[in-house]
Design goal:
The chain is mainly alpha-helical and 139 residues long. It has one domain. Helices cover 78% and strands 0% of the residues. It has 5 helices and no strands. Helix 1 packs antiparallel against helix 5. It is elongated, with a radius of gyration of 16 Å. The termini are close together. The relative contact order is 0.19. GO terms for molecular function: CCR5 chemokine receptor binding; signaling receptor binding. Involved in G protein-coupled receptors (GPCRs) trafficking from the endoplasmic reticulum to the cell surface; it promotes the exit of GPCRs from the early secretory pathway, likely through interaction with the COPII machinery. It is found in: Membrane; Endoplasmic reticulum; Endoplasmic reticulum-Golgi intermediate compartment.
């Protein structure tokens, strides 16, 4: 059972790494004016909920399988994703809003957040890989 948890977590982490890279590429395209703000935000907003669900499922799965350290490591990022989604002001297009993305350095903060998430998911990838190998050896 433990190996199944880490195999699923590893696959989910791969998807989240892909999403983080996609966010970085799309935001850098906006920064370089290759795409406009509206198309950038619509592309990114449709992936916010899948990212939220994917990360939350892994976090809950780790809680249910009693892997406390990895759960506590994932909890702040999952909480941040939920908070960010819930706190979208009414009238905005989503987490990424084309009218506000160039204001107050939001583009830079979104880019920094995507980079931090990429680093976090890469760290988690290797932790899940190590834990999966350890679980398979112990079975």
């Amino acid at each position: 059972m433990e190996a199944v948890v880490f195999v699923f977590s590893l696959l989910d982490c791969c998807a989240l790494i892909f999403l983080s890279v996609y966010f970085i590429i799309t935001l850098s395209d906006l920064e370089c004016d290759y795409i406009n703000a509206r198309s950038c935000c619509s592309k990114l907003n449709k992936w916010v909920i899948p990212e939220l669900i994917g990360h939350t499922i892994v976090t809950v799965l780790l809680l249910m399988s009693l892997h406390w350290f990895i759960f506590l490591l994932n909890l702040p990022v999952a909480t941040w994703n939920i908070y960010r989604y819930i706190m979208v002001p009414s009238g905005n297009m989503g987490v990424f809003d084309p009218t506000e993305i160039h204001n107050r350095g939001q583009l830079k903060s979104h880019m920094k957040e995507a980079m931090i998430k990429l680093g976090f998911h890469l760290l988690c990838f290797f932790m899940y890989l190590y834990s999966m190998i350890l679980a398979l050896i112990n079975d």
